[in-house]
Amino acid sequence: MTAPCVLLTGASGGIGLALCDALGALGARVWLLGRSEERLQAAAARLGEAGGEPRPMTADLGEPGAAAEVATRVLADGSGLDWAIQNAGIVETAPVGSAAADDAHARRLMQVNFHAPRELTQRLLPGLEASTRGQVLFVASSAALGGAPYVAGYAASKHALLGWARCAALDLRGRVGVQALCPHFVDSPMTDAGARFVADRTGRSLEAVKEEYARLNPSGTLVTPAEVASAALQLLQGERTGQVLELPGGGERVVVEPGIAPSASPPPK
Ligand SMILES: NC(=O)c1ccc[n+]([C@@H]2O[C@H](COP(=O)([O-])OP(=O)(O)OC[C@H]3O[C@@H](n4cnc5c(N)ncnc54)[C@H](OP(=O)(O)O)[C@@H]3O)[C@@H](O)[C@H]2O)c1
To answer: What is the distance in A from the centroid of ligand 1 to the CA of 112?
Structure first.
């Protein structure tokens, strides 16, 4: 397989850096997206050390115009696009009924976790369709599969993302693969930030809160970023069938959505 051309959002976070390692090992040329230039440079170094070719690009996907700007730049570059890994995301803790769970909170989460990846996918379609292995991979969450306390805004945004991904997989079958991952709690800065929030308010240690998160995972352990990256590469290098995998930790992969039979005929455009 020739090295793929990839767009990776959230490249500088916990899962993003593990994806940099995995994509670098393939020699991939990767557009790396995030808000912080400094963190992106660290991601670029990591990808480069692993053997990849980094192209860092700062963008705030919380801004409604950002997806269009990113897509225009990637498509105008003309070097092709095989995989779009939509991994950037934010979480905010806000119990329904609390002052924090206001309109702005819900809209922020929907913008970054749903509208940005949806719009970016749509705008990148011409590039992805031009590739014989064009695929979109969404990093959703176990929060897309059920409810949990304090994260209604986050869960809603991830339910929206997964629902859209499932429909897009059907609409685009035969043209572009659309697949998704639903990890449970991952050992990453996002989880650390949530645990710190709880630790500060309860007087418990960060480690004790993280241990509790691990116990909440079906495996009893936190999912590692490397596990997510490995599952991502499995989907991206496999058949473009529209699979959804749940990652409970401990290296397990549960098929939530088996995907579309390869023989299914494409729907009318
Ligand atoms: N951690 C978990 O337990 C867990 C579980 C299931 C699913 N997930 C999902 O996995 C994905 C990655 O999570 P993670 O754990 O790796 O989180 P993380 O370490 O907090 O990384 C988040 C990444 O997204 C980028 N990002 C955040 N807001 C952005 C914005 N407005 N515009 C552009 N980039 C933005 C961050 O870069 P900058 O801050 O520099 O912008 C960073 O690269 C997310 O979609 C998350 O919802 C995480």
So the answer is: 10
